[in-house]
Amino acid sequence: MNRLLKKIGFILLFVVISAGGIFILSRKPKTVEGIETFPDQGRNHVSDGITEEYNSNPPTSGPHYAQWEKPEIYDRVLEDGKLIHSLEHGYIIISYNCDRSLIFNFKFLIFKQAYAHETEEVHEETPATDSADVKTDSVSGWKDNPDCQKLVDQIKQVTKRTGMDRLIVVPRPNLDVPIALTAWTKLLKLETVNEDKMVDFIKEFHNKGPEKTME
Q1: Which domain holds residue 83?
Q2: What is the H or E stretch that residue 8 is in?
Q3: Residue 66's domain is classified under what CATH number?
Q4: Is residue 183 classed as helix, strand or coil in its secondary structure?
Q5: How confident is the prediction along the chain (215 residues), in pLDDT tens digits per residue?
Q6: pTM (2 decimals)?
Q7: Residue 51 CB: number of other CB atoms within 10 A?
Q8: Short-list 197, 205, 97, 107, CA closest to 152
Q9: Which of 136, 71, 77 lies closest to 103, judged by CA?
Q10: CB 161 within 8 A of CB 86
């Protein structure tokens, strides 16, 4: 009888441990494809206004100012010196470039038009358009641009799923893609808003900067 009870106990213990392991794994963020890792460029403080050369755009580490930016959805460009300090504190930064998003959507529309007519015998040629030829409004933020507002609204859906703790959303006019997420030494570039990927990136690197702070 005692042997039977022990056997049942071992079985129950195994089931509990297995269930716990499955639960933990199900809560663990997925490894996000496309993440780039850059060499750590250090954490030295520099005086405001001093420009540095960084090994990525947006930067993911390196010399920075003594001040840092706080969690917010910004409609104005912020200095890298402050943003890098935020990364050091474990922040995630979502940078966006509305002009690049408009260019991507424009090219996608041209592609769809060409694809829709590819079975026709006669094709009306569409002249190739380089990104530099596409006329878009250069804006620092989104308040005066309906198309940019739409992009930021999509990003806001991500922030609703993650919260704004140690999270910054900021325009970046020199960004070469519509969306980029950065953590300390980590970079993920996206052509469109991908909520699942963005949420997984934030969960994986949130509050994992080299400097632990109470905020």
Answers
A1: 32-101+130-205
A2: helix 2-27
A3: 3.40.30
A4: strand
A5: 556 555 665 665 555 565 554 444 444 445 789 999 999 999 999 999 888 899 999 999 999 999 999 999 999 999 999 999 999 999 999 999 998 765 545 443 443 444 444 444 433 333 333 323 323 333 445 567 888 899 999 999 999 999 999 999 999 999 999 999 999 999 999 999 999 999 999 999 999 999 999 88
A6: 0.71
A7: 10
A8: 97
A9: 136
A10: no
Name residue, tokens 């794994």: 25
- Please give the single-letter amino acid code of residue 37: T
The first and second tokens of residue 89, run together, are 């504190």
69 located within any domain: yes
Please give the structure tokens belonging to residue 186: 């980590």
Are 209 and 87 spatial neighbours (Cβ–Cβ below 8 Å)?
Answer: yes
What is the residue whose two structure tokens read 């910004």?
Answer: 74
Under 8 Å between Cβ of 209 and 184:
yes
Question: How do strand 186-190 and strand 92-96 relate by DSSP bridges?
Answer: unpaired
- Joined together, the tokens standing for residue 145 give 């641009």
